[in-house]
């Protein structure tokens, strides 16, 4: 099932660059027809395991900042009407302009589903533009860099639930011959609007033989499988949708389901690289360890990568049924965890047996909780009260006798939580003070097990 995405926005925000990145060389041959379609470039896009048609409205004469030439407005409206989803692109470097506001207005009135992308968000000092984009009232902005290819997993994560919704709607409403009859009320009720409920996206990663396929098969065996295994993001990774006791969940797996799909490959060699790929598409990463040989080099690498990619992490220790002295072992595991993975401080550690199914309820609870934490948004007023207390308890350093002043802070982004602290001399700020703030945020706002990003920024 495919859908159509229109990329809209004022000139120079990077629409064509994004179009080219999504489409690569898969440009559709467009009829040489006069009229509006000539101005709409169309291509077949691929993003992860999604394929869709993408329309580009770029290549128009420049619009001045306070007007939108009629032709551009017509073209945008045309693209909006043709599309299932609109991707509204703004520029992190210029911030929101009056022309952006006009586009936002058109989209609010006319478009069904709108995603908001803030392009050119690579490098430093672009949080301001991202923050500003919230004011458009079109939901959470997705920071991207079309030129550098950054942010594509987030775009994918935003599109995926919509794509699932379209696929479901298409299944429920099979193409019927159009008899030109008026649509009855009953038929209307039968039509389902694409669901906007985003499925939880998880990946199960770990070294070979940790029990990944056993775990996934156990989950799929017990839960309702919503769709069968599909060829996934790459030849090697596969995703399935399941209903995890009422929570729609997409599991990205690597070696596990490949075995099930009877694809014979060098599993041992591929599994780490596959795991790394799956991490990019997941919201919560379940790092599965073998209780007999926990925290091996490979496990640590995968967990560290998940943290660096900004994913929520749950550590599950498998084959717990084989452990004799469970109490002592658990203590040992926790100590090893804190020592070897300090960057994941407080992440949940759950013991399970994929084979017997014990502990899978707790695993589910930990995954859902980790996802919530990852989505945490702390109100600005609360943050600033907290910042005042933190400064009072332990003032920032005073390099060369001049104390660094922390002026205020705000949360720029969730998934994972990103905070920006405005201060004097951000370049002189010591890492130890930043760590003090991060650890404080984690403890005081109850955010265990999620990466927390905090940047210091100078004013203006
Ligand atoms: P369009 O008019 O919206 O289609 O914009 P273009 O794709 O033609 O891009 C306008 C300008 O922005 C070009 O110079 C691009 O190289 C530049 N650009 C596009 N994407 C990015 C990005 O992610 N980062 C930066 N820094 N520049 C970008
Ligand atoms: P994968 O390579 O990570 O997908 O690992 P598998 O799922 O193929 O499991 C590797 C081996 O560990 C198999 O022989 C499984 O039967 C076994 N195994 C997996 N989970 C458990 C468990 O919870 N308890 C026990 N005792 N064995 C397990």
TrEMBL record:
Residues 3-167, 200-375 form the EngA-type G domain. PROSITE patterns: G_ENGA. GTP 2 binds at residues 206-213, 253-257, 318-321. Keywords: GTP-binding, Nucleotide-binding, Repeat, Ribosome biogenesis. InterPro entries: G_ENGA, GTP-bd, GTPase_Der, KH_dom-like, KH_dom-like_a/b, P-loop_NTPase, Small_GTP-bd. The keyword Cytoplasm does not apply. GO terms for biological process: ribosome biogenesis. The keyword GTP-binding applies. CDD domains: EngA1, EngA2. GTP 1 binds at residues 9-16, 56-60, 119-122. GO terms for molecular function: GTP binding. It comes from the Bacteria. Pfam families: KH_dom-like, MMR_HSR1. Associates with the 50S ribosomal subunit. GTPase that plays an essential role in the late steps of ribosome biogenesis. PANTHER family: GTPASE DER. This is GTPase Der. It comes from Roseivivax halodurans JCM 10272. The lineage of its organism: Bacteria, Pseudomonadati, Pseudomonadota, Alphaproteobacteria, Rhodobacterales.
């Amino acid at each position: 099932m495919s859908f159509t995405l229109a990329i809209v926005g004022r000139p120079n925000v990077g629409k064509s660059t994004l179009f080219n990145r999504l489409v690569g060389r898969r440009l559709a041959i467009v009829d040489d027809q006069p009229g509006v379609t000539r101005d709409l470039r169309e291509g077949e896009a691929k993003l992860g395991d999604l394929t869709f048609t993408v329309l580009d409205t770029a290549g128009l004469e420049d619009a001045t900042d306070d007007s939108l030439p009629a032709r551009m407005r017509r073209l945008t409206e045309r693209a909006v009407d043709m599309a299932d989803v609109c991707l509204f692109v703004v520029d992190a470097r210029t911030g929101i302009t009056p022309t952006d506001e006009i586009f936002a207005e058109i989209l609010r009135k006319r478009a069904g589903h709108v995603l908001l992308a803030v392009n050119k968000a690579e490098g430093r000092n672009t949080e301001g533009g991202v923050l500003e984009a919230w004011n458009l009232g079109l939901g959470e902005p997705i920071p991207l860099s079309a030129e550098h290819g950054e942010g594509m997993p987030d775009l994918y994560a935003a599109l995926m639930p919509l794509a699932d919704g379209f696929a479901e709607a298409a299944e429920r409403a099979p193409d019927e011959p159009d008899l030109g009859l008026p649509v009855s009320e009953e038929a209307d009720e039968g039509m389902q609007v694409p669901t906007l409920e985003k499925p939880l996206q998880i990946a199960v990663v770990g070294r070979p033989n940790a029990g990944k396929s056993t775990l996934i098969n156990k989950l799929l065996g017990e839960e309702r499988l919503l769709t069968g295994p599909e060829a996934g993001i790459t030849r090697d990774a596969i995703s399935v949708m399941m209903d995890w006791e009422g929570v729609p969940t997409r599991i990205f797996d690597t070696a596990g389901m490949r075995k099930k799909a009877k694809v014979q490959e060098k599993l041992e060699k591929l599994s780490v690289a596959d795991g790394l790929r799956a991490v990019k598409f997941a919201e919560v990463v379940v790092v599965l360890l073998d209780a007999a040989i926990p925290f091996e080099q490979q496990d640590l690498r995968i967990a560290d990568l998940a943290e660096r990619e900004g994913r929520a992490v749950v550590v599950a220790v498998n084959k717990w049924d084989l452990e004799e002295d469970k109490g002592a072992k658990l203590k040992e595991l926790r100590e090893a965890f804190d020592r070897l993975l300090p960057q994941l401080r407080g992440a949940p550690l759950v013991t399970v047996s994929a084979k017997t199914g014990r502990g899978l309820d707790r695993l589910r609870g930990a995954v859902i909780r980790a996802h919530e934490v990852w989505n945490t948004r702390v109100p600005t007023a609360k943050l600033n009260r907290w910042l005042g207390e933190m400064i009072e308890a332990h003032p920032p350093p005073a390099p060369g006798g001049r104390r660094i002043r922390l002026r205020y802070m705000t949360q720029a982004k969730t998934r994972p939580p990103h905070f920006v602290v405005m201060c004097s001399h951000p370049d002189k700020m010591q890492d130890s003070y930043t760590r003090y703030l991060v650890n404080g945020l984690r403890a005081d706002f109850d955010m265990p097990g999620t990466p927390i990003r905090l940047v210091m920024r100078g004013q203006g």
